[in-house]
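Below is how a single chain appears once it has passed through the pipeline. First comes the sequence as given, then the structure the pipeline wrote out for it. We keep one example in the README because the format questions we get most often are answered faster by looking than by reading.
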Amino acid sequence: MADDLRKVVCIEDELEMIELVKLILDRNKFEVTGAVGGQEGLDKIGEIKPDLVLLDLMMPEMDGWEVYQKMKASEAMRDIPVIVVTAKAQSIDRVLGLHIARVDDYITKPFGPQELLDSVERVISTKKESTAS
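Resulting structure:
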């Protein structure tokens, strides 16, 4: 049943990473749409209205923080949970992401398949609980 699939938009500048995310999540009842770069990502979010966005920070043209700010400024996108997936592993970036920008989770590359899946499941179920109450 297609209705059981939860929709995820993966915004990333590396096609290999989008393919890896699709491979991991497709097997677990997620429908992953890849977007190469920030503007394409915002377009896909507006079109698909996903349950979750996986967002790379370091991208040319429009970086992940700019995409995140545009999402939060948009009435239609502000409530979509965001997991930052990045190679920036410094603790200051994590603090900025989780506590200042208030992203829903933060995963550093390279990550294991289970780490990604656990984060996605946790964020989506937390979101469902907060909208149900």
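The CA atoms of residues 72 and 78 lie 4 Å apart.

See the next section for the split statistics.
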